[in-house]
């Protein structure tokens, strides 16, 4: 009888932390638990209050365990948001001399390890690595070199890296909170991996991740990321605008956006809505149209700033023979849930636009995941799992655990 493999995924955002536990038996996937809690102690992608941050993560872990009705016993994949992510290309060669050798998994694994070490020498920590191109004997380009024979193999890698100090900040704080081995990933890349289809990634697509502090932008072509960037404006600024204009709290502004917001206002009626003032007691009124005018203005700014990135990617893809960007724009993140935002984006980008969520990708269907699979804010939580489960060469790093703590933890698990 086959064994179930468990994956626990956490996506750390500036506004919310999302958690997801998936189980895989043979080829069948099932969602076993999922939750979302308010994120505390983070600001602009940095940990500002360690105690509050750890409490947020612990709250999420506790909610997941309550749903499972047992402790979490699996390796973890944890993604986080940062404007420090960069894309780097690395080339690794292996020359076997005059004798042609069969390309094995061990050779590919060794070459990838060499690429990872090369990146680390520059003070960068790689979070994702993609095989961009395989070249055999300096003349044959292949999609999969396994079992092929060659006297020389050259692999071009594309990696998403982050400065070592940023990596260590999150790793060290999480090490004492998450009592299991874990990998760290880029939320932006995991989001894209959780929402895109294979044809989109192959022919060209731009993902616009509408996050809280900033908007993340990533483009794919030939199956790998070709460009990443950020717009320093996010949903926080939309909430701030509503709060300032309507003279209310951040929490009430967020509620108004969720329950009555709209990205397009031109054809809305002057429907009256009520909300609470700054004191939390005074009842005020506005209209759905006025609220949407405020929302629209800031969202249009985000789209307009993102258009420069879109045009740069479009120019690069046109050079390779495509007409425009075949996959268009995929909107994801919490901001993608605002009604009619696709309509606004289509007007700005002059390109096809769709909402990016796991349910709209071409990934395997997952039992009991309907609620979160259609939620764009859970995209990275899904993408985390497939970022590790589909990479045959990358190993999960085991943290250095105090021997006494390890003995105590094992004893505790046996007693449960």
Question: Class of the domain at 86-165, according to the CATH hierarchy?
Answer: Alpha Beta
Query: For the terminal residues, how far apart are their CA atoms?
Result: 24 Å
Q: How much helicity do the residues have?
A: 25-40%
Q: CATH topology of the domain at 86-165, which one? A: Dna Ligase, domain 1
What is the number of helical segments per DSSP (H or I, 4+ residues)?
12
- CATH architecture title of the domain at 86-165: 2-Layer Sandwich
Mean pLDDT, nearest integer? 90
Total strands: 21
Approximately how much beta-strand content do the residues carry? 25-35%
Radius of gyration, in Å, reads 23 Å
Computed structural class = alpha/beta
- How would the global form be characterised? globular
For the biggest sheet, the summary is: 6 strands, mixed
Low-confidence stretches: 392-416
Strand order of the largest sheet: 13-6-1-2-3-21
GO cellular component, one term: cell division site
Protein name: Cell division protein FtsA
Keywords: Cell cycle, Cell division
Pfam families: FtsA, SHS2_FTSA
List the helices and strands and how they pair.
Layout lengths: L4 E8 L3 E10 L2 E11 L3 E2 L2 E2 L2 H19 L7 E5 L5 E10 L5 E2 L2 H16 L3 E13 L3 E3 L6 E2 L1 E12 H12 L6 E5 H9 L2 H6 L1 E6 L4 E7 L2 E8 L3 H12 L3 H11 L11 E5 L6 E5 H32 L9 E4 L8 H9 L3 E3 L10 E2 L2 H4 L5 H11 L13 H13 L1
Walkthrough of the structure:
The chain has 416 residues and is of the alpha/beta class. Among the domains are: 86-165, Dna Ligase, domain 1 (2-Layer Sandwich), CATH 3.30.1490.110; 235-300, Actin, Chain A, domain 4 (Alpha-Beta Complex), CATH 3.90.640.10. The chain has helices at residues 50-68, 105-120, 164-175, 187-195, 198-203, 235-246, 250-260, 288-319, 341-349, 370-373, 379-389, 403-415; strands at 5-12, 16-25, 28-38, 42-43, 46-47, 76-80, 86-95, 101-102, 124-136, 140-142, 149-150, 152-163, 182-186, 205-210, 215-221, 224-231, 272-276, 283-287, 329-332, 353-355, 366-367. The strands form six sheets. Strands 13-6-1-2-3-21 form a six-stranded mixed beta sheet, with helices on both faces. A five-stranded mixed beta sheet has the order 16-15-14-19-20, sandwiched between helices. It has a four-stranded antiparallel beta sheet with strand order 7-12-9-10. β19, α9 and β20 (353-355) form a beta-alpha-beta unit. α6 crosses α7 (250-260) and α8 (288-319) packs across α9. The chain starts with a strand and ends with a helix. Mean pLDDT is 90; it is low at 392-416.
């Amino acid at each position: 009888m086959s064994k179930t493999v468990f994956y626990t995924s956490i996506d750390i955002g500036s506004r919310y932390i999302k958690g997801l536990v998936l189980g895989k038996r043979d080829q069948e996937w099932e969602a076993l638990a999922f939750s979302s809690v308010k994120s505390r102690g983070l600001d602009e992608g940095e940990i500002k209050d360690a105690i509050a941050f750890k409490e947020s993560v612990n709250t999420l872990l506790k909610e997941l365990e309550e749903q499972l009705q047992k402790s979490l016993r699996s390796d973890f994949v944890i993604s986080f948001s940062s404007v420090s992510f960069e894309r780097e290309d690395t080339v690794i060669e292996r020359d076997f001399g005059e004798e042609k050798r069969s390309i094995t998994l061990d050779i590919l694994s060794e070459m990838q390890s060499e690429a990872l070490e090369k990146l680390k020498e520059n003070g960068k920590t790689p979070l994702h690595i993609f095989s961009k191109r395989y070249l055999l004997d300096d003349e044959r380009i292949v999609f999969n070199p396994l079992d092929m024979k060659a006297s020389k193999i050259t692999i071009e890698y594309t990696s998403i890296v982050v400065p070592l100090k940023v990596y260590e900040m999150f790793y060290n704080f999480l090490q004492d909170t998450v009592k299991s081995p874990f990998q760290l990933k880029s939320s932006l890349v995991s989001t894209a991996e959780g929402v895109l289809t294979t044809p989109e990634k192959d022919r060209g697509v731009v993902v616009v991740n509408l996050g809280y502090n900033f908007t993340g932008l990533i483009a794919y072509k030939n199956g790998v990321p070709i460009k990443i960037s950020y717009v320093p404006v996010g949903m926080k600024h939309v909430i701030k605008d509503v709060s300032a204009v309507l003279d209310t709290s951040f929490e009430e502004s967020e509620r108004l956006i969720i329950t009555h917001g709209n990205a397009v206002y031109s054809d809305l009626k002057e429907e009256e809505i009520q909300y609470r003032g700054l004191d939390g007691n005074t009842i005020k009124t506005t209209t759905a149209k006025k609220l949407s005018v405020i929302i629209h203005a800031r969202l249009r700014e985000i789209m307009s700033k993102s258009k420069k990135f879109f045009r740069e990617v479009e120019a690069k893809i046109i050079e390779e023979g495509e007409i425009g960007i075949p996959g268009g724009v995929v909107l994801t993140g919490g901001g993608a849930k605002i009604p009619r935002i696709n309509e606004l984006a289509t007007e700005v980008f002059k390109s096809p636009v769709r909402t990016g969520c796991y349910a709209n990708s071409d990934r395997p269907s997952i039992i009991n995941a309907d609620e979160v699979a259609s939620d764009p804010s859970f995209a990275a939580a899904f993408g985390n799992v497939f970022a590790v489960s589909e990479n045959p060469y990358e190993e999960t790093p085991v943290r250095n655990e105090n021997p006494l703590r390890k003995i105590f933890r094992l004893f505790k698990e046996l007693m449960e």
